[in-house]
Amino acid sequence: MASVTIDAVVFDLFGTLVPEFDRSDFYDAVDRMAETLGAPSERFREEWDASALDRQTGAFADIEQNLRAICSTLHVSLGDNALSRAVAIRATLYDRWFFPRPGAMQTLRELRSRGYLLALISMCAPDAPARWRACELAPFVDAEVFSSETGLQKPDPSIYRHACDVLHVEPGNCIYVGDGAYGELTGAAEFGMHAYLIRDPHVDPAQQLTPERDEGWTGAEIADLRDLLDLLPAPGPTR
Q1: Residue 127 CB coordination number (10 Å)
Q2: How many angstroms separate the CA atoms of 51 and 69, rounded?
Q3: Could you say which of 68, 73, 94, 114 would form a disulfide bridge with 236 (CB–CB 3.0 to 4.6 Å)?
Q4: Residue 221 phi/psi, 5° resolution?
């Protein structure tokens, strides 16, 4: 990176700044939501997965609306408080998994102190943005792009362009860091960013939810978010 002027670092959320969900735990919560709603488990799972893109791109204002749509498709009559109890199961899943990964706070704080602009781009359901904004990491980030709020999705160039426009930076002056879900690294690199895969040797990818992993990625990697501090000097670039 010595020959490149870097103005900004753009982060993925799940699997990067916070842990990715454990696949088994995630689908256990989906099954328990189905049971609470009185829906057949296998059919509910199918509809939950089938509605993922709608959930992530703004078709549903919240998880309750998504659950109502699934129950309507499955002709499930909702009992008293069933929806609120199902949403609570989902919230408890987030309670277990939505917290800063090791080194995330130190990295964001230090990069900000060095003068770098920071952004977040996330493919996420409508319950994720509020979680992020209540998280201790949020104040360090200058721009946030949530697919569920913008309707943009990875790896479409528009989602990376939106982040650059908000920061007023060129893609060639940005580093992108992610775990490779949704082909995000290839998308970021094709858009002109300097993409880095975070591959934590202590995490087993097979146990994670991570969808549509960027399996063919042969570009740059880091093992820990704090590795970025060795790549990006202090003070930050003059703008």
Answers
A1: 19
A2: 9
A3: 114
A4: -135, 155
Cα dist. 94→88, 90, 98, 125, 130 in Å? 10, 7, 5, 12, 11
Task: Determine phi and psi for 194, rounding to 5 degrees.
Answer: -95, 100
pLDDT per residue rounded down to tens, the chain (239 residues): 567 899 999 999 999 999 999 999 999 999 999 999 999 999 999 999 999 999 999 999 999 999 999 999 999 999 889 999 999 999 999 999 999 999 999 999 999 999 999 999 999 999 999 999 999 999 999 999 999 999 999 999 999 999 999 999 999 999 999 999 999 999 999 999 999 999 988 888 888 888 777 777 899 999 999 999 999 987 655 44
Q: Do 194 and 173 contact (CB within 8 A), yes or no?
A: no
The closest alpha carbon to 124, from 167, 160, 154, belongs to 154
Q: Which of 13, 133, 125 is nearest to 62 (CA)?
A: 125
Distances (CA, A) of 214 to 45, 180, 218, 220: 24, 5, 9, 13
